[in-house]
Amino acid sequence: MGMEWPPASAQQRKAAVVGSRSAAVLKLGLLVILAGLALRLLVGPAAYLLPPTAAPEGPARHVAAPGRETTRGGAGDVMPSGEFAVTGSESLADSDNRQGSPETQESCNLFHGEWVPNPVGPAYTNASCHFIESPQNCMANGRPDTNYLYWRWKPYGCEVPPFDGKKFLDGMQGKHWALIGDSILRNHVQSLLCLLSKVEDANEVYHDDTFRSRRWHFHSHNFTVSLIWAPFLIQAKIFEDDDGVSTADPQLYLDVLETNWTSQWEGFDYVVISTGQWFFKSAVYWENGAEVGCHSCQNKNLKEMPPEYSFRKALNTAFQFITSSPHKPVVFYRTWAPSHFENGEWFSGGTCNRTVPFKPGEAGDREMDSKMWRIEREAFESAVANKGPDDADHLKLLDTFELSLLRPDGHSGPYRTYHPYEKGMTAKVQNDCLHWCLPGPIDAWNDIIMQMLAKD
Ligand SMILES: *[C@@H]1O[C@H](CO)[C@@H](O)[C@H](O)[C@H]1NC(C)=O
Ligand SMILES: *[C@@H]1O[C@H](CO)[C@@H](O)[C@H](O)[C@H]1NC(C)=O
Ligand SMILES: *[C@@H]1O[C@H](CO)[C@@H](O)[C@H](O)[C@H]1NC(C)=O
Ligand SMILES: *[C@@H]1O[C@H](CO)[C@@H](O)[C@H](O)[C@H]1NC(C)=O
């Protein structure tokens, strides 16, 4: 398709060129273009609609050719939340006494701690793992600093040992994992496949025509991993063309689940599920078959409702299904994935060029992130509370928010594209401060999952 992410970055470049001229009329044009760009991106990130240019099949061909950008896995898959990265009242301090999940209560909270130096470095590299998709392949894309690779997550009061792929695969004979959600889940599954590739390479056995839902099989361990695209978890009608231009506001059915995952539920033994920034998009909200309101939508007759409303409703609908289904896979609900745009927003030149993690407390207050994180914990806790004590065991909170928030240095940034500064350091590049480099901080999510499993 020859398209790139975000679809508007060509416009941004155009805007930059235009902006460098001085004629007032052109400045006005710049404003119009930027306003249009902002609107378009707010209305709908769209790169996920673009089919991959090369449609690679086998693992050996997953590495994009240098210089060519695949649209699959682009940062446009979720709308970064940079615009909400403002100071606010709720602080991380209120997480101090929080319990991660029932399993970790007696010992220590795996999710509260700090990043400490790790001279050993990452478990895999861009050379040893061929599941790293181009937008996450920061090393191959020329990221010059490597410090971000030499940290490990250290909870206060305990250790998280590195992921043990052999132990994991040996324990998962005949099992089926599903990762359900948006492109952060895709980021996560790549990390898992890379960590496991030290023991066995997965074979891709299924993908949909857009490569958003995929499945891999580890033959000698008879282990299956599915990635399932359901960015809102609930049912959503999205009206975007291939350029990401919306012809109408997305329609979200807050009490109806996306069948992409529910229809396969009985087949899963373990599930990692999450949702996130997509709820910041403008959308019309439906409940009980009727429009109940909208968020920054075009139809001004509808009642304005905040994204927190639809997010909470959607989570409750999902948890209701999970807790009432007779089938009980082990379910990890993974909490909010924060972005780290600075000096601008994701559509206005925001960057994330830090090279070391934040120290505890250094991330500052993040009102919107904290709000969404609190909603998740509340929804999760009420789901657990609604269960009998014997039954609640299979529900686990994978509360990665805090440890992720401390890693502003781990995002792809400009290195989501191949050698972004080839044409000089002044080149205008779109930064991805939401998805993570691989290897990178997101590998810790799998270390923690392994530890949670080990505790059972
Ligand atoms: C891995 O990254 C290095 C730079 O750190 C690069 O020279 C090399 O070509 C990359 N290898 C692959 C297979 O992409
Ligand atoms: C692989 O696992 C599935 C699901 O547990 C099982 O039905 C099947 O018999 C297994 N296949 C082999 C070859 O063990
Ligand atoms: C569900 O999956 C199908 C096939 O992969 C896809 O076409 C559809 O867009 C998905 N639904 C959503 C909401 O993404
Ligand atoms: C990081 O980006 C900001 C602009 O967003 C720039 O002022 C600063 O010099 C950059 N730092 C490095 C180390 O490149």
TrEMBL record:
Which Pfam families does this one have? PC-Esterase (PF13839), PMR5N (PF14416)
Cellular localization per UniProt:
Golgi apparatus membrane
Q: Mind naming one GO cellular-component term on file for this protein?
A: Golgi membrane
Going by the entry's taxonomy, the superkingdom of the source organism is recorded as Eukaryota
Q: Which residues form the Trichome birefringence-like N-terminal domain?
A: 106-159
Keyword annotations: Golgi apparatus, Membrane, Signal-anchor, Transferase, Transmembrane, Transmembrane helix
- Please list the residue ranges annotated as the Trichome birefringence-like C-terminal domain: 160-452
Indicate whether Transmembrane helix appears among the record's keywords: yes
What are the transmembrane regions? 28-50
A GO molecular function term, named singly, is: xylan O-acetyltransferase activity
How does the entry describe its membrane topology? Single-pass type II membrane protein
Q: Which family does it belong to?
A: Belongs to the PC-esterase family. TBL subfamily.
Q: What is this protein called?
A: Trichome birefringence-like N-terminal domain-containing protein
**Which organism is this entry from?**
Paspalum notatum var. saurae
